[in-house]
Model the fold of this input.
Amino acid sequence: MGATSAPSRGIAAKVRPGMSVTRTRPMRFRSKVDSWFVVVLAAAGLLGVLACIPVLGRGGPVAFLVVAFILFSVLGVPLWLLARTYYEFQAGELIIRSGPFTWRIPLSQVRSVEPTHSPLSSPALSLDRLRIEYGPGSSVMVSPADKEGFLGEINARRSNPSLVQPVT
Done:
């Protein structure tokens, strides 16, 4: 997904100086999902459902509300994250969506993109990540399934692609 017209060198694709590439069409990249992540979510969901059984045995409207909250927390939110974690290039910005959360990063503020395996919280469903540094001291980690296409797209849409570090 996300073929670019930029030449490919390793994982990072760069636009040659003087090359005119205009990207106006939105381009979306899904997050890579590690299998361990799915296993952890499934285990948490199973434990949540098992925890609801004794509460339902007590009956009543309060028990129903408690069960609904627990099931939404352990099943709904993780499924929402799995279904809606993606990275989209629109006009001059990168829009990152992860469940109910959204980040908007102007591409003109991107200072560097480097590989990382940091386990810190981020809108990435894999530990095979890219750390994007932007603005005054801000950063976010993403895990596009098509890392090469993502890097090619970020380079093609930036006015000065040489600021984005090649990823090897």
Observations:
- The CA atoms of residues 63 and 115 lie 46 Å apart.
